[in-house]
Amino acid sequence: GLIVIFAWFLPESPRWMYVRGRVVEAQATLTKYHGQGNPNSEWVKLQMMEYETHLELDGTDRTWWDYRALFRDRASRYRLMMNCIVSLFGQWAGNGIVSYYLSKFLDTAGIRGSKTQINVQLGMNAIQIVFAGLGASQVDRFGRRPMLILVNMACCLCWVGITVATSIANVQENSTPEYLASIPGPVSRAVLAWVYIFQICYSFGWTPMQALYPVEVLSFEMRAKGMAFSNLFTSIGLLANQFGFSVALVNLAWKTYIVFTCWCAIQAGIIWYFVPETKNRTLEELDAIFHSKNPRKASTERKKLELDANANVIHVDNVEKTGLAHVI
Fold this sequence. Notes:
Elements: H1 2-6, H2 14-19, H3 23-33, H4 42-54, H5 74-91, H6 95-100, H7 102-107, H8 114-142, H9 144-169, H10 177-181, H11 185-216, H12 223-243, H13 245-252, H14 256-274, H15 283-290, H16 295-300, E1 303-307, E2 313-318, H17 319-322
């Protein structure tokens, strides 16, 4: 309801206005929000030049059935792959089993009783709200790649702790009440502590990144249809969580968590090797990155700018190749 009310007060995207021929309005919006009201701002001029170079006035995004923009070249396919990978990985880091099968999950640690499990759920909800907000506020500080890599490594370590503790409890589907009562209290508390730590890590890293990164890697004309693929792969991940891990918990019990331990480590490796950094990049800068031979490497290279007396860029080079930047 709040979105419906306040969305009317949001300024329209200047890129959207530009591709629909409303060039003057697009420039006015950029002048207001990026140029501090100065129509001669160099920043505004640069963005308008980028629009003219990169945006298509009659692009495929203007017809609902045309998906060619998602597959037309290597750069577009790489963008879509990154969009789908992050959408899927966010569901397979283990949050699904903790969220949808919390009761069964706690059973494997000997934590039973509806009142106790409800209290655990309330605590997890509070953690999600607080740390998702904190994570969202720190995304621009840490960058997308570091946050995605670190959150998967952190989730992996949490699953190691959960696996060790639940293996000691060794609760099976046919465990008797007497056996459950004999599980040491410190073991159950250790599982609970690791679950909370996992939820802190997941909420801080994955929750904001699932909403941010998939849309950032898409070019303007790809975004609407590309996000449909993001939702598709999110649903695929959820489908596996809903129908796969319930069976695994019955048949494998605590051994199911070994899967998450290994998979989170694999996710971290895949992200490190393939996923480009998008922090502080315009859509037009990302175009150049994804058209490079190695987008991940291109996104993490430090650049030096050589400027003339009027602050115009006259040369760009990689810091790694030439050492310290030389700025005139």
